[in-house]
Amino acid sequence: MPRISITCLALLLASSLAGKAVAQPDTFTTEELVTGFNATVFGLEYRTWSWQPYMVKKFAKPVRFRIFSLSHKDRRAEVEVFIAEMDRKIAGISIQVASATEEPNFDVYIVDRHQYEDVVRQSVYKDMTADAPGRCLVRVESGRRGIKNSRAVIVSDEGDFLFRRCLVEELLQGLGPMNDDDRLVHSVFNDSSRHNRFTVFDQLILNILYDPRIKPGMSPSEAEKVLPVVVRDARRRIQP
Prior knowledge:
Helix content is 39%, strand content 14%. By secondary structure, it is an alpha/beta fold. Helix 2 (30-41) packs across helix 6 (200-209) and helix 3 packs across helix 5. This is DUF2927 domain-containing protein.
């Protein structure tokens, strides 16, 4: 094989490995994580959907999922796998599929595209005249004591990448970080990014949010007082 071909192959392999490298918890500065927390938690992608966008929104009790598999392809198992991943990787909150004796507080509807608008209107808004924006969505109902319930609608039949992207983004946003921000290049909370997994950056954001020192209903100024130490402790909990 000519030398130039070997060199090119080596460069391609190095580039491929670099692209697959996983960020470490200490990759991000405290300032970057505080900025990411403020950008995702204190705001809403759709501001009319929830109570007090500039207050902390989080579950104050265990999160229990109910899955409605309405699509032609049954993706229930994939949803259950991601729910288990969130439970492993987010400290401070229990996240599971609801048992027969438990009351669910997070509904997930898996649909095909032609079902999307009707399910959003009927099951999420309970209003057949409501708008059904986006390629997938989550609605969070929250109050001063925390999130009351969340409902997500995920489209199944527009490719595995989009399904996985929507699953990760909407279920994580349903836990409280409701806003997208184009500055967050390492995050799924960025409509311009190509992430479709629970990135280390997002694990840090969720572990900061579910630290017990971050309270439901906190204002940005209240959270600011404890964020540096909470960020430090969140780094210690993350295992990339």
